[in-house]
Amino acid sequence: MKTAGSPWGIYIGIILLVAAVSAGVYYYTSARAPSPEEIALPPLGTGDQSQKAAKQGVRIEGGEVVEKDEQGQVLWRVRAAGEITYDDKAEVLRGSDIEFEVNLQGQPTVRVQAPRFIADYAGRRIEFGDGVGGAMVDGSADFQVEKLEYQMNTQKLVGTGGAKFNRGHYSATADRIVVDMENREIRMHGNVLLARRQES
Amino acid sequence: MKNTKALKDRPAKVAGLIVSLAMAACVLAHCVGLAAAQQAKATRSAQVRADDLVIDLDTDAWEFTGNCKLTVSFGHEAQMTAPRMTVQFNEKMDQIVKLIAYGVVNFHVVTKPNADGVRRDISASAQKQAVYSEPTQTVELIGGATADISTVGGDGEAAHITGDKITANLKTSKIFVDNPNMKIETPLED
Fold this sequence. Notes:
- The complex is a heterodimer of chains A (about 200) and B (about 190).
- Chain A has about 200 residues and is an alpha+beta fold.
- Chain A has two domains: about 35 residues, no CATH class; about 150 residues, lipopolysaccharide transport protein A fold (Sandwich).
- In chain A, about 15% of the residues lie in helices and about 50% in strands.
- Chain A is built from two helices and 13 strands; from the N terminus they run ααβββββββββββββ.
- A six-stranded antiparallel barrel of chain A has the order 6-7-10-11-9-8.
- Chain B is about 20% helix and about 50% strand.
- Chain B has a six-stranded antiparallel beta barrel with strand order 3-4-7-8-6-5.
- The relative contact order of chain B is 0.10.
- Classes of the chains: A alpha+beta (about 200), B alpha+beta (about 190).
- Chains A and B meet through helix 1, strand 12 and strand 13 of A and helix 1 and strand 1 of B.
């Protein structure tokens, strides 16, 4: 004689089904979120290219350019996922899809990512464009700006156009931002607005 | 036989139903809780506008200069202006613990309607500084503080208060005055 299943079985089945669907949704959304490790830039170029592009005080090694001070401490470092070229007449280094690091006392302090990069050695400045994102290496804050300039002499990052600085649950927007890691200071100028960040 | 089985299964079915209802209630309570929390977040906020801002990354001191304006929204709005303001956050950086405005500070708020539906317009100022606290929802005006209070859409009754310190509580729509000196103007009927 066939008997009907216990209702407890049905209830447990429903609970297991809900748990399985929740776990699936969680796994799917977690897997889609990019982690910092995933956006690490691959090395590019060969030793020959590095030699061709070599310049006094600058070394290119597999798509990575490093500038050091007289004591040999790294001042800044740039890695390119895209193309990297050096014009020795104009003393201009160009790169695309780059990751740039500003160092203080040899330690990285700020990391910048940008689609476009131009280093003008004669003008002692590096320009990043087309939507720039940056972050403190210690993870305490991050910023976004349309265009950013690294001034080699002062070791300051100066951003213009829709500057946004995020720290904790708050963000400040302005026309211009100056990241001065030597003095551990952020300066924002023009139409400054501090507000709580919109929770997504 | 069928009836006996049905009777035997009945407590189990009832228990199952109770468990299902309890689960549904938990889910509903969670959703309601989330909605209420979001509503609470949406109903109270503070914004600061200024010409310039300097952030000290070591001390986490945020200093605003030039045409500083604090706007607090809590269903309605209160505004405070000053030449310079500093903001202190809590450790989690999710709340403004204290905002200090320096120099000549002006403050304006239209209170919530009281039990009689009356709303007051308060315009206050201080010569030295003002302190806004988000946790207590208060504004302290310090040093040569004055406040002009009038009834919104009222009969012209107005009060002018001066004191060493005026504290406005945005939550309760009350003001407290230290060493007060008050003048009330009431228009006479014909």
